[in-house]
Amino acid sequence: MASSLPLISRRQSFQSALHGWYRVHHRKLPWRDAPSLYQTVVSEFMLQQTQVATVLPYFGRWLRALPDFAALAAAPEAKVMKLWEGLGYYSRARNLHKLAQAYVAAPAKPRTPAEWRDLPGIGPYTAAAITSMAFGEPAACVDGNVVRILARLTRDGRLFRNGSEAANHFMPLAGALIAGADPGEHNQAMMELGATVCLRAKPLCPACPVAAFCAARRHGLPEKLPRFRPKRTERMCVIRTFCLDRRRLLLRRGQAKAKRLAGLHELPEAADLGIKPAANSLVATKRRTITRFHITESIHAVKPTATLRKRVAQDVALAWVPLRATASSTQMKPASN
Q: Which range of residues forms the domain containing residue 63?
């Protein structure tokens, strides 16, 4: 196992190679063009556990509808959730909404990482990202990309329980490497390197600007690092229904206890309607992964019988929604394989 000391001793050379590469090769993204504090905050929330390609169209629509903290703070929650619909992890939208309200109401605006961490939805990584880019605070960002880079640079082969443990382990090294640099540029360069070159599988080592500093590459080990204990996963099967009646779609409002769906609509489960669809009524299958759950959703066509209409009338969570109102909602549409 290599030490981090050789890398720290060559910090300036490492920074020069990394930052020079970033200035030439970084992706042109809308939140990097003359970014405001608000744009930085919105982009960081959207990018949590979500790919850049997915975020791009949402970011533009969001800024057109809610261009600043004041507009977001004043917006009704229904509007906020509608703009977020389809991005997933809906607690992010609620926290972003609450953050804007707290920010607007605060007589003294937060500036340091510690002050930002007092706001809803802000953890160590997001606080470091926002304050380094917006205020030049020397706070190192350590996410999965940065953990991967540092584990490979130092050939650190220890077995981590989870990402949080790994991030805490590498935080001192990340802090040492950012010293003396432009914090915002350094953090973005590290994240860009992990997202585009130092990939989890098949890293592009020949194109890496800091390959000369990488102990794992010298020993032929980059794809084996970092090391994590296998995650325990669970498989779930859900039977949903797709019922149309006079150009209206039957939907169920997400339950408050299911935070990711609270306030949103989804296709009701067969159990919600007290029915067992026939196998030949299957119209689509949707597979997705949420944290450790691998979910298979079977969507069945159901006829709007008198019994079903009566059940809908008795359940306030069920509603017939005009098709035109569902057209833009990815949460409402069944997805085929």
A: 5-228
